[in-house]
Specification:
The protein has 366 residues and is of the alpha/beta class. 26% of the residues lie in helices and 29% in strands. The chain has three domains: 202 residues, Rossmann fold, CATH 3.40.50.620; 55 residues, SH3 type barrels (Roll), CATH 2.30.30; 77 residues, Translation factors (Elongation Factor Tu (Ef-tu), domain 3, Beta Barrel), CATH 2.40.30.10. The chain is built from nine helices and 17 strands.
């Protein structure tokens, strides 16, 4: 029996989750590794060789680590529940003129639920992942805050986690920099693991080409939506290939020349219209989010000021935030560029993750 307890570690086969499992094992926890298979490329119509967290190579890499350290490893096939929820939502969001955030949904509704369910079956007190984040207890709540290596911080995709899940969650990498994690892998003799390339693509979209993915899922989609209007300054300036194949902020691939760079400003599925604008047209001072979750506070203080990120790599902008009915209302202190409905707005107090939600779509302006 371990002196620290039993922990179920989500192992993708990559360096971060592998080192997380190694660290917990060396600290005296009774570790059980689990690799979740969420998707296969054959289902997306791709002929390319699988890469990333769902590939056979990655599963074998995770198992090799477990064998090396002498702890059990299991494979968990959640393709059914993943596809039914995440894939369907992904397609529905594009059809609704929004840009989906599948990694947030997967963490919130699939991976953590699946991990905790299996942790209970295996009598594990804790679950652990290789995310660069930290968690602490404060005022009877679990507070997620940024990891030491803020260039790798992953708190943005964790805003949807509930308090009951966080009570049992460990982030072993939170107090380390990526360079230290790579060195740990090398010191343990896993040179190939330390040099393994990382994938930042959506796991079920080959080459990150979501347009081909949508066409495969909905073979008649392109015929139905092709030929909608581009609007620029309230004038029709050309035809596009169909509103689901565009995202707010997009500049490349528009196949239209107006004498100066233009960007997708807004998408109106009801009329198959894509509104274009120049860079200044994309600036916004206000947004609302739906389906929000608060982590640091049970109730958000009135006129709360937080640093708000509207995309993963966004450095953040200060905003005054208030709860209005079932939504959060953000007033930015300086304009933000490229607000995409469906993406996450995530806000912080210092390094602490306060909460987040999905950016709400404006009412159609026609």
């Amino acid at each position: 029996m371990s002196k620290h307890g039993k922990v179920l570690v989500a192992m993708s086969g990559g360096i971060d989750s592998s080192v997380a499992a190694m660290m917990l094992h060396e600290q005296g926890y009774e570790v059980i590794g689990i690799t979740m298979k969420t998707w296969d490329y054959e289902s997306s119509g791709s002929s390319k060789r699988e890469t990333g967290c769902c590939s056979l190579d990655s599963i074998n890499d995770a198992r090799s680590i477990a064998v090396s350290f002498g702890f059990p490893h299991y494979i968990l096939d959640i393709r059914g529940e993943f596809g039914e929820f995440i894939i369907n939502n992904f397609v529905e969001e594009y059809l609704a003129g929004r840009t989906p955030n599948p990694c947030v949904l997967c963490n919130t509704h699939i991976k953590w639920d699946a991990l905790l369910k299996r942790a209970d079956m295996l009598d594990c007190e804790f679950i652990a992942t290789g995310h660069y984040a930290q968690v602490r207890e404060e005022n009877n709540r679990r507070v997620v805050f940024k990891g030491l290596d803020q260039t790798k911080d992953q708190t943005y995709v964790l805003w949807g986690l509930g308090q009951e899940s966080l009570k049992r969650t460990m982030f072993p990498l939170g107090q380390f920099k990526k360079t230290e994690i790579k060195q740990m892998a090398k010191d343990a003799g896993f040179i190939d693991l330390a040099n393994k390339s990382e994938s930042y693509d959506i796991c079920f979209v080959p080459d990150n080409n979501y347009r081909d993915f949508l066409k495969h899922r909905l073979p008649d989609l392109e015929d139905k939506v092709n030929g909608g209007n581009y609007l620029f300054k309230n004038k029709v300036v050309g035809k596009h290939r169909g509103y689901p194949f565009y995202t707010v902020g997009q500049r490349k691939g528009l196949e239209i020349a107006l004498g100066a760079p233009v960007f997708v400003k807004e998408i109106i599925p009801e009329t198959n219209t894509v509104i274009l604008g120049d860079k200044e047209d994309l600036e916004e001072n206000h947004l609302q989010v739906r389906d929000f979750n608060l982590i640091k506070y049970e109730h958000l203080p009135e006129d709360f000021v937080g640093l708000t990120k509207i995309r993963y790599k966004d450095p953040g902008t200060l905003a005054t935030i208030n709860t209005i009915d079932d939504k959060l209302d953000f007033i930015f202190h300086s304009p933000v560029n490229g607000v995409a409905p469906g993406q996450s707005a995530v806000f912080y107090e210092g390094n602490d993750l306060v909460g987040g939600g999905f950016i709400n779509r404006k009412k159609p302006n026609f």
